[in-house]
User: What shape does this take?
Amino acid sequence: MNQENEIKKTKRRDVNPPYKKGLKLAFLVVILAGGLIIGRLFYINSEKGLDYSKAVLLQRSYRSRSIAAKRGSILDRNGIILARSEKKYNVIIDPRQILEKDYYLEPSIDAMVKYLGYDADEIRTLIYDNPDSSYVVYEKDADYSKISAYKKYQADKLRVTGVWFEEEFSRIYPYSTLASHVLGFVNREGMGSYGLEQYYNDELSGTAGLSYTYFDSDLKQKKIVENAVDGYELVTTIDYNVERIVEEKVKDFLDTTGAKNIGVIVMDPNDASILAMASNREYNLNDPRDLSTCYPTSEIMFMSESDKLEKMYGMWKNFCISDTYEPGSTFKTMTVAAALDENAIDTDDTFYCAGYSEVGGWRIGCNNKYGHGTLSLSQALMKSCNCALMEIAAKLGKDSFYRYQSKFGFGAKTGIDLPGESSGILIPLKNLNETELATSSFGTTFNVTMIQIAAAYASIINGGTYYQPHVVREIRRSDKTVVSNYNDMGVRQTISEGTASFIKNALFLTVESGTATPAKVEGYLIGGKTGTAQKRPREEKRFVVSFAGFAPVTDPKVLVYIVIDEVADPELSASSSPATKLCAAIMKEILPYLGVYPDGDIDYHVDLTMIDDSENENYDPFEDEKNTDVLPEGIDDEIE
Amino acid sequence: MIMKNTRVRKVVGSYDISLLLIVALLCAFGTVMVFSTSYYNADRFYSESTKYYSLQIRNIIFGGASMIMVSLIDYHLYSKRIWRSINLLYVLYVLCMVLQILVVFIGYSSNGAARWLNIGPVGFQPSELTKICIILMSAYLISTRVKYMKTLVGITPMLILFTPLVMLVAYFDLSTGIVLLAIMFVVALVVTGFRKYYLGIFGVMLAGGLVLILYKGYRMERIIDWLNSDTLDTGSQTIQGLYAIASGGIGGKGLGEGIQKLGKIQEVHTDMIFTVVCEELGIIGAITVITLFLLLLWRIYVVAVNARDMFGGLICVGVFAHIATQFILNIMVVTNMIPATGIPLPFISYGGTSLVVLMAEMGLVLNVSKQIPKEGVSDA
Assistant: This one.
């Protein structure tokens, strides 16, 4: 048996297949190759080990990615969203990357055509036109399903490259032009521009997150993700419906009468919170560089780029807080209130108007050049008599006058939470001489902003408390927890309750039977004061007309202040009636909305001292409406 | 004698257990590495970190099944005539030709080169099947013409049959073409030894290869990149692969601790997987993998030289050539010893068709091993 095996073994050796030698050689070659490879591995490690290990870490440690935070929404007082942010994806094409290797081009273009739906020729042109660029935003707000399809396809394709996706939050204003000056917009860099977007930029923008990788002491990689913190929400005091109505009425006015500028502020006088703020320069917040809301296309076509930019800055500016003007007769309310409060005059005092007054060597005319005759204090307001006001201011004295100007917030920013507020210019106390005091008494020769007048009126109407005007009521986190609120913005006492009550009644009479009768709205007790101010240069006869109205007189819920700069209709240019009528139109619609319903049978009597008009033969009530040359030529130069 | 196709003998041998074990080890190791290399990208692109890992397990199940099936089929069946002088191998050859032509027209591309056919939901790479075809055909054509192999006449039928097939493959996928040629010539060379006429054949092939390289710009570019590998920019896959290898050191950073797979090396779970083996398991891990391959080749070698007949023996030689070529070329590419080209590392790289075909080849070798006559049993 053993022997047999021996033989067989020999035999098997004899019958070795003919390929055994060759295969053995091949195996040797393989072993050799294996040895060579192992040698190569040692070589790479010893020669480049340190450099390459460092390179590996270096190219990692820079890998950090910022995670965009969601910008907070802006809501109206009832929770209607006025501005919100939505996640969007931008498609970025990297021509440089695509052109790096010949074989990237076609597969990459194919993939873009197939999965992103782009035009092959267009992409090719784009790539060749921007060979050195690595960042061409090709599509904004791309469809997410499209992107994920592309990503999925691209994942294992070495030759498909050069397309990146960028997550971005885009700002959406659902009502595009609504409250554009209050809201502002977000510029291309993601920063708030104008309005609340700018003023509360820090609160709204939140904190961007960061995702980065670092190496610990063992060279183990650690990935750290700091999540983005979403921005805070702003709950404003704006009422969407009031804002909408006001803007509609402004538009109606522009369509029928027209003016250079209009500003309207609707305020709750009880806390100086802004219900609506509008002007004729509303713009599309979703496309803030579009001038077409303010200028006709034919005009835009011929504008140069710098022209356009200038027009844009003008369009974005908030007329209600940035522009200053001489307030005119609306300011008389403040002069009378101050004098009453200081006991410089009494509610029963009477004044005589001859149609002009001699002050400091100047003959300063009344708004009624034929003279009002003898007037009571309330009639001085009702008829807007300049002569009476000059007399009152003289009794009050310049120190008190100036003090009350400041008390009512003139000459300083009100502090409203909007950017770009102007402070206006008062005549400094040291220059406030007899003449200046006289012209200032009826609201000329000093400048104010609309918001200053509105806030001052609010303090009178509400019984004497000056509140800081504001647009934001509450700042809260995205989970609705409150960060801060601005419900109590009371600053100081301006006048006494009694003074306030007299003024309210006098202003009621002004609307009932004075200069502001067009502001009447049937079924409501409306009070208010008109204003007509001549713009400089005075000889050009351009006017700023205004009206501050409030309702209901018994318990004021709303204050509407309107300023119309240069009414287009020359017949009406010096008349306050466009402003009073616009106010009536607005009041009529917003009052029911604010829960103040018309009462058909109002029994309200005001018992203030009245001097019978018939005593004055010269008095022509129609002349009250007309503003004649109130300020004598040259007086401005002296005052300055 | 052994070389004769005598079908009377009963199958008396058994599976080569060590071969089976090595294959199982390689597959298991491969699966672990596929997971380690792919979870990051799979999560990033598909939000499913185990995507490639579970697909690879599916591939192994299919591969295992194909290995068992093939190992149960007597390899002589393939060369058995079914009609006149036609046998199954010719059928397979025609099938491969048809599939390769189809790829040209309706194949879809992965990485820019059309290599795939979609059969229902399954992507399929016909060139992998062509590898089996070349192995079996070479073994068959040479074992039946062994007497003529000393001259050019013997190898001519192979050249005639294989040239169009290899050209079809090489046109799109030069590296697979090279693997196919390597299989064919290794099988021929081990039988004939070196002959002068090979110089002529190689000369022609080199010229053809050059044409293909120049035809597709990226091939030339890769060669230029390789020649200037010191100045390659860091965006290159080769450099990133070398970064991985060099930063591994002797013992590696530890399984799963690699950094380069995190977005720096694309396709890291397929052709570049060896770089992460080096990065995570170090030179020790690399040597282990290389040793496993050498052991596997040794087992195939043993089966080849003990095969019952020349057909079986040469089948094993073909499989040997296939695995050896791919394993050496893949690692030489990632270690930048030769220009970059896309060849997967057998059993370890992710890939369905490749794995199933490799396992079928293992089935062939196992069937040959099963038919080895045992000592004490007559072999006359």
Observations:
- Residues 17-192+268-276+290-370 of chain B form one domain.
- The CA atoms of residues 327 and 346 of chain B lie 6 Å apart.
- Chain B is about 65% helix and 5% strand.
- The beta strands of chain B are 81-83, 86-87, 108-110, 113-119, 122-124.
